[in-house]
Amino acid sequence: MNVESLESPYKELVKAAVEVKDKAYCPYSNFHVGAAVLTSSNQIFTGVNVENASYGLCVCAERVAITNAVSQGHRELKAMAVCCDIKDSFKAPCGACRQVVAEFNLDMDYYMVKPDYTSKKIKFAELLPMAFTPASLKEERV
Ligand SMILES: O=c1ccn([C@H]2C[C@H](O)[C@@H](CO)O2)c(=O)[nH]1
Ligand SMILES: [Zn+2]
Protein backbone atom coordinates (compact mmCIF):
# COMPACT_ATOMS: atom_id res chain seq x y z
CA MET A 1 0.00 0.00 0.00
CA ASN A 2 1.27 3.44 -0.95
CA VAL A 3 1.42 5.85 2.00
CA GLU A 4 -0.58 8.56 0.27
CA SER A 5 -3.45 6.11 -0.25
CA LEU A 6 -3.82 5.63 3.50
CA GLU A 7 -6.30 7.72 5.46
CA SER A 8 -5.43 9.81 8.50
CA PRO A 9 -4.28 9.01 11.13
CA TYR A 10 -2.82 5.83 9.61
CA LYS A 11 -0.90 7.82 7.02
CA GLU A 12 0.76 9.82 9.80
CA LEU A 13 1.39 6.65 11.79
CA VAL A 14 3.27 5.04 8.91
CA LYS A 15 5.24 8.20 8.23
CA ALA A 16 6.19 8.49 11.90
CA ALA A 17 7.60 4.95 11.92
CA VAL A 18 9.76 5.61 8.86
CA GLU A 19 10.99 8.97 10.09
CA VAL A 20 11.83 8.00 13.67
CA LYS A 21 13.91 5.07 12.40
CA ASP A 22 16.85 7.42 11.84
CA LYS A 23 17.05 8.02 15.59
CA ALA A 24 17.78 4.35 16.33
CA TYR A 25 20.78 3.77 18.56
CA CYS A 26 22.21 0.67 16.91
CA PRO A 27 26.03 0.86 16.81
CA TYR A 28 26.34 -2.95 17.07
CA SER A 29 23.84 -4.21 14.53
CA ASN A 30 23.57 -1.09 12.36
CA PHE A 31 19.97 -2.25 11.94
CA HIS A 32 17.66 0.71 12.39
CA VAL A 33 14.08 0.17 13.49
CA GLY A 34 11.39 2.78 14.07
CA ALA A 35 7.99 2.10 15.62
CA ALA A 36 4.88 4.22 16.05
CA VAL A 37 1.83 3.31 18.08
CA LEU A 38 -1.63 4.87 17.72
CA THR A 39 -3.79 5.28 20.82
CA SER A 40 -7.57 5.19 21.02
CA SER A 41 -7.41 8.99 21.32
CA ASN A 42 -5.52 9.09 18.00
CA GLN A 43 -2.24 10.17 19.52
CA ILE A 44 0.99 8.76 18.15
CA PHE A 45 3.94 7.65 20.28
CA THR A 46 7.20 6.54 18.73
CA GLY A 47 10.20 4.43 19.64
CA VAL A 48 13.48 3.18 18.21
CA ASN A 49 15.71 0.25 19.04
CA VAL A 50 18.25 1.12 21.72
CA GLU A 51 21.28 -1.15 21.88
CA ASN A 52 23.89 -1.67 24.55
CA ALA A 53 27.51 -2.85 24.75
CA SER A 54 26.08 -5.62 26.91
CA TYR A 55 24.23 -7.02 23.89
CA GLY A 56 21.47 -8.79 25.78
CA LEU A 57 20.16 -5.45 26.99
CA CYS A 58 19.19 -4.26 23.50
CA VAL A 59 15.56 -3.13 23.39
CA CYS A 60 13.42 -3.27 20.26
CA ALA A 61 11.71 -0.21 18.81
CA GLU A 62 8.26 -1.77 19.25
CA ARG A 63 8.67 -2.14 22.99
CA VAL A 64 10.09 1.36 23.35
CA ALA A 65 7.07 2.86 21.50
CA ILE A 66 4.60 0.92 23.65
CA THR A 67 6.46 1.87 26.83
CA ASN A 68 6.36 5.52 25.78
CA ALA A 69 2.59 5.42 25.22
CA VAL A 70 1.87 3.57 28.46
CA SER A 71 4.10 5.84 30.50
CA GLN A 72 2.14 8.84 29.22
CA GLY A 73 -1.07 7.20 30.43
CA HIS A 74 -2.22 5.58 27.16
CA ARG A 75 -3.04 1.89 27.41
CA GLU A 76 -5.61 1.59 24.65
CA LEU A 77 -3.46 0.97 21.62
CA LYS A 78 -5.33 0.45 18.36
CA ALA A 79 -2.64 0.31 15.70
CA MET A 80 1.08 0.15 15.23
CA ALA A 81 3.52 0.77 12.38
CA VAL A 82 7.09 -0.48 12.27
CA CYS A 83 9.82 0.23 9.75
CA CYS A 84 13.30 -1.28 9.51
CA ASP A 85 16.19 -0.89 7.09
CA ILE A 86 15.27 -3.86 4.91
CA LYS A 87 14.55 -2.63 1.41
CA ASP A 88 12.59 -5.33 -0.34
CA SER A 89 10.50 -7.25 2.16
CA PHE A 90 8.03 -6.58 4.96
CA LYS A 91 9.30 -7.69 8.36
CA ALA A 92 7.24 -8.90 11.33
CA PRO A 93 8.29 -8.29 14.95
CA CYS A 94 10.37 -10.56 17.18
CA GLY A 95 8.71 -12.94 19.61
CA ALA A 96 9.34 -10.79 22.67
CA CYS A 97 7.61 -7.81 21.07
CA ARG A 98 4.67 -9.97 19.96
CA GLN A 99 4.09 -10.90 23.58
CA VAL A 100 4.29 -7.26 24.71
CA VAL A 101 1.78 -6.17 22.04
CA ALA A 102 -0.54 -8.99 23.14
CA GLU A 103 -0.55 -7.58 26.65
CA PHE A 104 -2.34 -4.49 25.36
CA ASN A 105 -4.27 -5.45 22.23
CA LEU A 106 -4.11 -8.71 20.35
CA ASP A 107 -6.57 -7.31 17.79
CA MET A 108 -4.57 -4.29 16.76
CA ASP A 109 -3.89 -3.35 13.16
CA TYR A 110 -0.20 -3.83 12.50
CA TYR A 111 1.51 -2.04 9.60
CA MET A 112 4.81 -3.46 8.40
CA VAL A 113 6.54 -0.63 6.61
CA LYS A 114 9.45 -0.44 4.18
CA PRO A 115 11.85 2.53 4.03
CA ASP A 116 10.09 3.69 0.84
CA TYR A 117 6.92 4.20 2.95
CA THR A 118 5.00 1.33 1.38
CA SER A 119 3.20 -0.83 3.93
CA LYS A 120 1.33 -4.04 4.47
CA LYS A 121 -1.37 -4.25 7.13
CA ILE A 122 -2.14 -7.37 9.10
CA LYS A 123 -4.25 -8.21 12.13
CA PHE A 124 -1.80 -8.69 14.94
CA ALA A 125 -3.49 -11.89 16.16
CA GLU A 126 -2.23 -13.60 13.01
CA LEU A 127 1.29 -13.20 14.37
CA LEU A 128 0.60 -14.78 17.74
CA PRO A 129 -1.85 -17.69 17.59
CA MET A 130 -2.97 -19.19 20.93
CA ALA A 131 -1.58 -16.15 22.73
CA PHE A 132 -1.11 -16.06 26.47
CA THR A 133 -2.79 -12.80 27.48
CA PRO A 134 -4.02 -11.08 30.66
CA ALA A 135 -7.33 -12.93 30.15
CA SER A 136 -5.50 -16.23 30.54
CA LEU A 137 -4.73 -15.39 34.16
CA LYS A 138 -8.44 -14.87 34.85
CA GLU A 139 -9.49 -18.37 33.78
CA GLU A 140 -10.58 -20.94 36.34
CA ARG A 141 -7.70 -22.80 37.91
CA VAL A 142 -7.38 -26.15 39.70
O1 LIG B 1 11.36 -6.37 15.27
C1 LIG B 1 12.49 -5.98 15.59
C2 LIG B 1 13.63 -6.75 15.36
C3 LIG B 1 14.84 -6.25 15.77
N1 LIG B 1 14.91 -5.03 16.37
C4 LIG B 1 16.22 -4.50 16.78
C5 LIG B 1 16.86 -5.19 17.95
C6 LIG B 1 18.32 -4.94 17.67
O2 LIG B 1 18.68 -3.65 18.15
C7 LIG B 1 18.42 -4.92 16.15
C8 LIG B 1 18.91 -6.21 15.52
O3 LIG B 1 18.17 -7.31 15.97
O4 LIG B 1 17.12 -4.63 15.70
C9 LIG B 1 13.81 -4.27 16.60
O5 LIG B 1 13.89 -3.16 17.13
N2 LIG B 1 12.62 -4.78 16.21
ZN1 LIG C 1 11.29 -7.14 19.33
Defining traits:
alpha+beta; 142 residues; binds 2'-deoxyuridine; binds zinc ion; metal-binding; single chain; five-stranded mixed beta sheet; hydrolase
Could you characterize what this model shows?
Residues 8-135 form the CMP/dCMP-type deaminase domain. Its cofactor is Zn(2+). There is one protein chain. The protein is α+β, with helices and mostly antiparallel strands. 23% of the residues lie in helices and 21% in strands. It has a five-stranded mixed beta sheet. The radius of gyration is 15 Å and the shape is globular. 34% of the residues are buried. Zinc ion is lined by residues 60, 62, 93-94, 96-97.
Short structural description:
Pfam families: dCMP_cyt_deam_1. By secondary structure, the protein is α+β, with helices and mostly antiparallel strands.
Task: Provide the fold topology.
Blueprint: H1 10-20, E1 33-39, E2 44-48, H2 61-71, E3 77-84, H3 95-104, E4 109-113, E5 119-123
Parallel strand pairs: 3-4
Antiparallel strand pairs: 1-2, 1-3, 4-5
Zinc ion binds at residues 60, 62, 93-94, 96-97.
